[in-house]
Amino acid sequence: xxxxxxxxxxxxxxxxxxxxxxxxxxxxxxxxxxxxxxxxxxxxxxxxxxxxxxxxxxxxxxxxxxxxxxxxxxxxxxxxxxxxxxxxxxxxxxxxxxxxxxxxxxxxxxxxxxxxxxxxxxxxxxxxxxxxxxxxxxxxxxxxxxxxxxxxxxxxxxxxxxxxxxxxxxxxxxxxxxxxxxxxxxxxxxxxxxxxxxxxxxxxxxxxxxxxxxxxxxxxxxxxxxxxxxxxxxxxxxxxxxxxxxxxxxxxxxxxxxxxxxxxxxxxxxxxxxxxxxxxxxxxxxxxxxxxxxxxxxxxxxxxxxxxxxxxxxxxxxxxxxxxxxxxxxxxxxxxxxxxxxxxxxxxxxxxxxxxxxxxxxxxxxxxxxxxxxxxxxx
Length: 379
Known about the structure:
The chain is an alpha/beta fold. It has 2 domains: 4-171 and 356-378, Glycogen Phosphorylase B (Rossmann fold); 179-353, Rossmann fold (3-Layer(aba) Sandwich), CATH 3.40.50. It is built from 15 helices and 14 strands. The protein has helices at 27-38, 56-64, 76-89, 99-108, 127-137, 148-158, 179-188, 213-223, 240-246, 264-269, 284-291, 304-307, 322-333, 336-353, 356-378; strands at 4-7, 10-21, 45-52, 69-72, 93-97, 114-117, 142-145, 165-167, 196-201, 227-232, 254-258, 272-275, 296-299, 315-317. The strands form 2 sheets. Strands 1, 2, 3, 4, 5, 6, 7 and 8 form an 8-stranded mixed beta sheet that branches. Helix 9 (240-246) links the parallel strand 10 and strand 11. Helix 11 crosses helix 14. It is globular and about 60 Å long. The two termini are 12 Å apart. The relative contact order is 0.12.
Protein backbone atom coordinates (compact mmCIF):
# COMPACT_ATOMS: atom_id res chain seq x y z
CA UNK A 1 0.00 0.00 0.00
CA UNK A 2 1.41 3.36 -1.05
CA UNK A 3 -0.64 5.59 1.16
CA UNK A 4 2.36 7.81 1.74
CA UNK A 5 5.43 9.14 -0.02
CA UNK A 6 8.71 9.42 1.85
CA UNK A 7 10.04 12.86 2.73
CA UNK A 8 12.72 14.29 4.97
CA UNK A 9 10.15 14.34 7.77
CA UNK A 10 8.89 10.81 7.24
CA UNK A 11 5.69 9.64 5.57
CA UNK A 12 3.60 12.22 3.72
CA UNK A 13 -0.06 11.62 2.76
CA UNK A 14 -0.92 11.60 -0.95
CA UNK A 15 -3.70 13.74 -2.41
CA UNK A 16 -5.18 13.16 -5.87
CA UNK A 17 -6.99 16.14 -7.43
CA UNK A 18 -9.15 14.71 -10.22
CA UNK A 19 -11.04 16.93 -12.62
CA UNK A 20 -13.00 16.51 -15.83
CA UNK A 21 -11.09 18.78 -18.19
CA UNK A 22 -12.78 20.78 -20.92
CA UNK A 23 -11.83 23.46 -23.39
CA UNK A 24 -12.16 26.36 -20.96
CA UNK A 25 -10.67 27.55 -17.68
CA UNK A 26 -13.04 28.63 -14.93
CA UNK A 27 -12.80 29.33 -11.23
CA UNK A 28 -12.70 25.65 -10.20
CA UNK A 29 -9.90 24.92 -12.64
CA UNK A 30 -7.82 27.81 -11.34
CA UNK A 31 -8.45 26.68 -7.76
CA UNK A 32 -7.17 23.16 -8.50
CA UNK A 33 -4.09 24.61 -10.16
CA UNK A 34 -3.28 26.87 -7.19
CA UNK A 35 -3.80 24.05 -4.69
CA UNK A 36 -1.43 21.77 -6.58
CA UNK A 37 1.20 24.52 -6.63
CA UNK A 38 0.82 25.87 -3.12
CA UNK A 39 0.07 22.94 -0.80
CA UNK A 40 3.01 22.23 1.51
CA UNK A 41 4.77 19.15 0.01
CA UNK A 42 6.23 18.25 3.40
CA UNK A 43 2.68 17.76 4.70
CA UNK A 44 0.73 16.67 1.63
CA UNK A 45 1.92 15.44 -1.79
CA UNK A 46 -0.58 16.57 -4.44
CA UNK A 47 -1.05 15.28 -7.98
CA UNK A 48 -3.51 16.43 -10.65
CA UNK A 49 -5.28 14.02 -13.00
CA UNK A 50 -7.28 15.52 -15.87
CA UNK A 51 -9.86 13.47 -17.75
CA UNK A 52 -11.44 14.64 -20.99
CA UNK A 53 -10.63 17.13 -23.71
CA UNK A 54 -7.06 18.31 -24.02
CA UNK A 55 -8.09 21.94 -24.22
CA UNK A 56 -6.70 25.17 -22.83
CA UNK A 57 -6.86 24.08 -19.21
CA UNK A 58 -5.13 20.74 -19.74
CA UNK A 59 -2.35 22.33 -21.80
CA UNK A 60 -1.85 25.04 -19.15
CA UNK A 61 -1.64 22.63 -16.21
CA UNK A 62 0.59 20.12 -18.01
CA UNK A 63 3.00 22.93 -18.93
CA UNK A 64 3.03 24.49 -15.45
CA UNK A 65 3.05 21.25 -13.42
CA UNK A 66 4.87 18.72 -15.63
CA UNK A 67 5.96 16.53 -12.72
CA UNK A 68 2.57 16.43 -10.99
CA UNK A 69 -0.10 16.51 -13.70
CA UNK A 70 -1.29 13.68 -15.96
CA UNK A 71 -3.91 13.85 -18.71
CA UNK A 72 -6.20 11.04 -19.92
CA UNK A 73 -8.71 11.13 -22.75
CA UNK A 74 -12.06 9.36 -22.39
CA UNK A 75 -11.15 6.28 -24.41
CA UNK A 76 -11.50 2.91 -22.68
CA UNK A 77 -7.75 2.38 -22.88
CA UNK A 78 -7.03 5.70 -21.16
CA UNK A 79 -9.68 5.19 -18.49
CA UNK A 80 -8.16 1.79 -17.74
CA UNK A 81 -4.76 3.51 -17.42
CA UNK A 82 -6.24 6.01 -14.96
CA UNK A 83 -7.73 3.17 -12.91
CA UNK A 84 -4.38 1.37 -12.88
CA UNK A 85 -2.47 4.53 -11.91
CA UNK A 86 -4.81 5.30 -9.02
CA UNK A 87 -4.68 1.74 -7.72
CA UNK A 88 -0.89 1.77 -7.87
CA UNK A 89 -0.57 5.08 -6.01
CA UNK A 90 -3.40 4.25 -3.55
CA UNK A 91 -4.00 7.85 -2.42
CA UNK A 92 -4.68 8.85 1.16
CA UNK A 93 -7.47 11.18 0.02
CA UNK A 94 -9.11 12.10 -3.27
CA UNK A 95 -10.80 15.35 -4.27
CA UNK A 96 -12.74 14.69 -7.47
CA UNK A 97 -14.76 17.49 -9.04
CA UNK A 98 -17.59 16.63 -11.38
CA UNK A 99 -19.89 13.64 -11.61
CA UNK A 100 -17.78 11.83 -14.22
CA UNK A 101 -14.52 12.28 -12.29
CA UNK A 102 -16.15 11.17 -9.04
CA UNK A 103 -17.59 8.04 -10.65
CA UNK A 104 -14.20 7.10 -12.10
CA UNK A 105 -12.53 7.57 -8.73
CA UNK A 106 -15.12 5.48 -6.94
CA UNK A 107 -14.61 2.65 -9.42
CA UNK A 108 -10.80 2.78 -9.17
CA UNK A 109 -10.18 3.32 -5.46
CA UNK A 110 -13.50 2.80 -3.66
CA UNK A 111 -11.93 2.77 -0.20
CA UNK A 112 -10.00 6.04 -0.52
CA UNK A 113 -11.81 8.77 1.41
CA UNK A 114 -13.22 11.38 -0.93
CA UNK A 115 -13.72 15.10 -0.58
CA UNK A 116 -16.50 16.18 -2.93
CA UNK A 117 -17.25 19.64 -4.27
CA UNK A 118 -20.80 20.84 -3.61
CA UNK A 119 -21.84 21.37 -7.21
CA UNK A 120 -24.14 24.02 -8.58
CA UNK A 121 -27.33 22.00 -9.19
CA UNK A 122 -28.42 24.57 -11.77
CA UNK A 123 -25.65 23.12 -13.98
CA UNK A 124 -26.75 19.51 -13.47
CA UNK A 125 -29.16 18.93 -16.36
CA UNK A 126 -31.60 16.05 -16.22
CA UNK A 127 -33.20 13.97 -13.50
CA UNK A 128 -30.85 11.01 -14.00
CA UNK A 129 -27.75 13.18 -13.50
CA UNK A 130 -29.19 14.78 -10.37
CA UNK A 131 -30.02 11.41 -8.81
CA UNK A 132 -26.61 10.03 -9.79
CA UNK A 133 -24.92 12.99 -8.13
CA UNK A 134 -26.95 12.44 -4.96
CA UNK A 135 -26.13 8.72 -4.88
CA UNK A 136 -22.40 9.03 -5.46
CA UNK A 137 -22.16 12.06 -3.20
CA UNK A 138 -23.49 10.13 -0.21
CA UNK A 139 -20.25 8.13 -0.20
CA UNK A 140 -18.03 11.17 0.37
CA UNK A 141 -16.23 11.65 3.67
CA UNK A 142 -16.47 15.44 3.41
CA UNK A 143 -17.71 18.17 1.10
CA UNK A 144 -16.28 21.52 0.14
CA UNK A 145 -18.58 24.49 -0.46
CA UNK A 146 -17.25 27.87 -1.61
CA UNK A 147 -19.83 29.81 0.43
CA UNK A 148 -22.55 29.43 3.04
CA UNK A 149 -25.09 29.90 0.26
CA UNK A 150 -23.66 26.99 -1.72
CA UNK A 151 -23.58 24.85 1.45
CA UNK A 152 -27.28 25.56 2.01
CA UNK A 153 -28.01 24.57 -1.59
CA UNK A 154 -26.14 21.30 -1.03
CA UNK A 155 -28.18 20.55 2.07
CA UNK A 156 -31.58 21.55 0.67
CA UNK A 157 -31.34 20.40 -2.96
CA UNK A 158 -28.71 17.66 -2.93
CA UNK A 159 -29.41 16.07 0.44
CA UNK A 160 -25.89 16.49 1.83
CA UNK A 161 -25.60 16.18 5.64
CA UNK A 162 -24.81 19.56 7.17
CA UNK A 163 -22.05 18.21 9.41
CA UNK A 164 -20.05 16.95 6.42
CA UNK A 165 -19.80 20.31 4.65
CA UNK A 166 -16.81 22.61 5.13
CA UNK A 167 -17.08 26.16 3.79
CA UNK A 168 -13.78 27.42 2.40
CA UNK A 169 -13.90 30.69 0.51
CA UNK A 170 -11.70 30.98 -2.59
CA UNK A 171 -8.59 33.10 -2.23
CA UNK A 172 -6.42 35.31 -4.42
CA UNK A 173 -2.98 36.84 -4.19
CA UNK A 174 -2.59 40.56 -3.68
CA UNK A 175 -1.43 42.12 -6.94
CA UNK A 176 -0.65 45.50 -8.45
CA UNK A 177 -1.36 45.90 -12.16
CA UNK A 178 0.69 48.74 -13.59
CA UNK A 179 -0.32 51.17 -16.31
CA UNK A 180 1.91 49.45 -18.88
CA UNK A 181 0.17 46.08 -18.45
CA UNK A 182 -3.21 47.76 -18.76
CA UNK A 183 -2.15 49.66 -21.86
CA UNK A 184 -0.76 46.49 -23.46
CA UNK A 185 -4.05 44.68 -22.93
CA UNK A 186 -6.04 47.53 -24.45
CA UNK A 187 -3.80 47.72 -27.51
CA UNK A 188 -3.85 43.95 -28.01
CA UNK A 189 -7.64 43.97 -28.17
CA UNK A 190 -8.12 47.14 -30.20
CA UNK A 191 -9.31 49.28 -27.29
CA UNK A 192 -8.48 52.94 -26.70
CA UNK A 193 -7.41 54.67 -23.52
CA UNK A 194 -10.46 56.93 -23.87
CA UNK A 195 -12.89 53.99 -23.89
CA UNK A 196 -14.97 53.65 -20.74
CA UNK A 197 -14.71 49.89 -20.24
CA UNK A 198 -17.30 47.66 -18.62
CA UNK A 199 -15.56 44.30 -18.10
CA UNK A 200 -17.58 41.09 -18.01
CA UNK A 201 -15.16 38.28 -17.17
CA UNK A 202 -16.13 34.63 -17.31
CA UNK A 203 -17.00 31.89 -19.75
CA UNK A 204 -20.11 32.76 -21.76
CA UNK A 205 -23.27 31.09 -20.46
CA UNK A 206 -26.93 32.04 -20.15
CA UNK A 207 -26.69 31.02 -16.47
CA UNK A 208 -24.09 33.78 -16.05
CA UNK A 209 -26.56 36.33 -17.44
CA UNK A 210 -24.58 37.22 -20.54
CA UNK A 211 -27.77 37.30 -22.61
CA UNK A 212 -28.88 40.25 -20.47
CA UNK A 213 -26.07 42.34 -21.90
CA UNK A 214 -28.06 42.94 -25.09
CA UNK A 215 -30.59 45.11 -23.25
CA UNK A 216 -28.06 46.59 -20.84
CA UNK A 217 -25.56 47.60 -23.53
CA UNK A 218 -28.24 49.18 -25.72
CA UNK A 219 -29.50 51.41 -22.92
CA UNK A 220 -26.08 52.36 -21.56
CA UNK A 221 -24.44 53.17 -24.91
CA UNK A 222 -27.40 55.32 -25.97
CA UNK A 223 -26.57 57.54 -23.02
CA UNK A 224 -22.77 57.33 -23.34
CA UNK A 225 -21.29 56.13 -26.68
CA UNK A 226 -17.79 55.98 -25.14
CA UNK A 227 -18.75 52.90 -23.09
CA UNK A 228 -17.38 49.60 -24.40
CA UNK A 229 -18.47 46.23 -23.01
CA UNK A 230 -15.57 43.75 -23.05
CA UNK A 231 -16.51 40.10 -22.55
CA UNK A 232 -13.49 37.95 -21.68
CA UNK A 233 -14.17 34.23 -21.67
CA UNK A 234 -14.62 31.14 -23.79
CA UNK A 235 -18.02 30.60 -25.39
CA UNK A 236 -19.82 27.74 -23.61
CA UNK A 237 -23.22 28.73 -25.02
CA UNK A 238 -22.72 26.98 -28.37
CA UNK A 239 -22.81 30.30 -30.14
CA UNK A 240 -26.04 31.55 -28.56
CA UNK A 241 -24.52 34.48 -26.65
CA UNK A 242 -22.34 35.75 -29.55
CA UNK A 243 -25.36 35.60 -31.90
CA UNK A 244 -27.49 37.62 -29.49
CA UNK A 245 -24.79 40.25 -29.05
CA UNK A 246 -24.09 40.45 -32.78
CA UNK A 247 -27.76 41.24 -33.34
CA UNK A 248 -27.73 44.08 -30.82
CA UNK A 249 -27.88 47.70 -31.91
CA UNK A 250 -24.92 48.22 -29.52
CA UNK A 251 -22.75 45.59 -31.25
CA UNK A 252 -20.09 48.19 -32.16
CA UNK A 253 -19.64 48.82 -28.44
CA UNK A 254 -19.21 45.15 -27.56
CA UNK A 255 -15.92 43.21 -27.77
CA UNK A 256 -15.60 39.44 -27.40
CA UNK A 257 -11.99 38.59 -26.60
CA UNK A 258 -12.41 34.84 -26.18
CA UNK A 259 -10.47 33.13 -23.41
CA UNK A 260 -7.98 35.41 -21.62
CA UNK A 261 -5.34 33.68 -19.51
CA UNK A 262 -4.82 36.75 -17.31
CA UNK A 263 -7.90 39.00 -16.99
CA UNK A 264 -6.41 41.19 -14.23
CA UNK A 265 -5.12 43.96 -16.58
CA UNK A 266 -8.59 44.18 -18.13
CA UNK A 267 -10.29 44.52 -14.76
CA UNK A 268 -7.73 47.05 -13.55
CA UNK A 269 -8.30 49.16 -16.69
CA UNK A 270 -12.10 49.00 -16.40
CA UNK A 271 -14.48 51.62 -15.12
CA UNK A 272 -16.77 48.85 -13.82
CA UNK A 273 -16.59 45.06 -13.56
CA UNK A 274 -20.11 43.77 -14.21
CA UNK A 275 -21.46 40.40 -13.04
CA UNK A 276 -25.05 39.83 -14.25
CA UNK A 277 -25.29 36.18 -13.11
CA UNK A 278 -28.45 34.23 -12.38
CA UNK A 279 -26.66 31.64 -10.22
CA UNK A 280 -23.26 31.59 -8.47
CA UNK A 281 -21.25 30.40 -5.53
CA UNK A 282 -18.35 32.77 -4.94
CA UNK A 283 -16.87 33.53 -8.37
CA UNK A 284 -13.11 33.77 -8.37
CA UNK A 285 -13.45 36.73 -10.72
CA UNK A 286 -15.21 38.68 -7.94
CA UNK A 287 -12.20 38.32 -5.66
CA UNK A 288 -9.78 39.06 -8.49
CA UNK A 289 -11.66 42.25 -9.33
CA UNK A 290 -11.56 43.23 -5.66
CA UNK A 291 -7.82 42.53 -5.53
CA UNK A 292 -7.08 45.10 -8.27
CA UNK A 293 -9.39 47.71 -6.74
CA UNK A 294 -12.09 47.56 -9.40
CA UNK A 295 -15.59 48.92 -8.88
CA UNK A 296 -17.93 45.91 -9.01
CA UNK A 297 -21.62 45.79 -9.91
CA UNK A 298 -23.19 42.38 -9.39
CA UNK A 299 -26.43 40.57 -8.93
CA UNK A 300 -26.96 39.51 -5.30
CA UNK A 301 -26.96 35.77 -5.98
CA UNK A 302 -25.37 32.80 -4.24
CA UNK A 303 -22.32 33.62 -2.15
CA UNK A 304 -21.57 37.00 -3.72
CA UNK A 305 -23.20 38.97 -0.84
CA UNK A 306 -20.90 37.06 1.55
CA UNK A 307 -17.83 38.73 0.03
CA UNK A 308 -19.27 41.98 -1.36
CA UNK A 309 -21.10 44.40 0.93
CA UNK A 310 -23.62 46.62 -0.84
CA UNK A 311 -22.49 50.25 -1.13
CA UNK A 312 -19.32 49.48 0.84
CA UNK A 313 -17.19 47.21 -1.35
CA UNK A 314 -19.46 47.00 -4.38
CA UNK A 315 -23.00 47.48 -5.63
CA UNK A 316 -25.51 44.61 -5.46
CA UNK A 317 -28.87 44.45 -7.22
CA UNK A 318 -31.69 41.85 -7.25
CA UNK A 319 -30.97 38.87 -9.46
CA UNK A 320 -33.92 39.27 -11.82
CA UNK A 321 -33.90 43.04 -12.31
CA UNK A 322 -32.20 43.90 -15.60
CA UNK A 323 -33.62 47.40 -15.26
CA UNK A 324 -31.91 47.90 -11.89
CA UNK A 325 -28.65 46.52 -13.26
CA UNK A 326 -28.83 49.03 -16.10
CA UNK A 327 -29.68 51.99 -13.87
CA UNK A 328 -26.97 51.12 -11.34
CA UNK A 329 -24.40 50.74 -14.10
CA UNK A 330 -25.25 54.15 -15.55
CA UNK A 331 -24.97 55.71 -12.08
CA UNK A 332 -21.57 54.11 -11.45
CA UNK A 333 -20.20 55.13 -14.84
CA UNK A 334 -21.13 58.73 -14.06
CA UNK A 335 -19.51 58.71 -10.59
CA UNK A 336 -15.71 58.19 -10.79
CA UNK A 337 -15.11 59.21 -7.16
CA UNK A 338 -17.65 56.68 -5.94
CA UNK A 339 -16.05 53.97 -8.08
CA UNK A 340 -12.63 54.74 -6.61
CA UNK A 341 -13.96 54.51 -3.04
CA UNK A 342 -15.70 51.19 -3.67
CA UNK A 343 -12.59 49.77 -5.32
CA UNK A 344 -10.26 50.86 -2.52
CA UNK A 345 -12.47 49.32 0.17
CA UNK A 346 -12.88 46.13 -1.87
CA UNK A 347 -9.11 45.79 -2.14
CA UNK A 348 -8.70 46.18 1.61
CA UNK A 349 -11.37 43.57 2.28
CA UNK A 350 -9.88 40.95 -0.03
CA UNK A 351 -6.44 41.56 1.48
CA UNK A 352 -7.79 41.07 5.00
CA UNK A 353 -10.11 38.09 4.47
CA UNK A 354 -9.67 36.34 1.14
CA UNK A 355 -5.96 35.71 0.63
CA UNK A 356 -4.71 32.69 -1.31
CA UNK A 357 -2.46 31.46 1.52
CA UNK A 358 -5.44 31.35 3.88
CA UNK A 359 -7.42 29.28 1.36
CA UNK A 360 -4.57 26.81 0.85
CA UNK A 361 -4.12 26.33 4.62
CA UNK A 362 -7.82 25.59 5.09
CA UNK A 363 -7.86 23.04 2.26
CA UNK A 364 -4.72 21.46 3.68
CA UNK A 365 -6.45 20.91 7.01
CA UNK A 366 -9.52 19.49 5.27
CA UNK A 367 -7.44 16.97 3.31
CA UNK A 368 -5.19 16.04 6.23
CA UNK A 369 -8.22 15.40 8.39
CA UNK A 370 -9.55 12.95 5.82
CA UNK A 371 -6.11 11.34 5.44
CA UNK A 372 -5.80 10.90 9.22
CA UNK A 373 -9.14 9.11 9.29
CA UNK A 374 -7.82 6.79 6.57
CA UNK A 375 -4.76 5.86 8.62
CA UNK A 376 -6.86 5.27 11.74
CA UNK A 377 -9.26 2.99 9.87
CA UNK A 378 -6.46 0.87 8.33
CA UNK A 379 -4.33 0.29 11.41
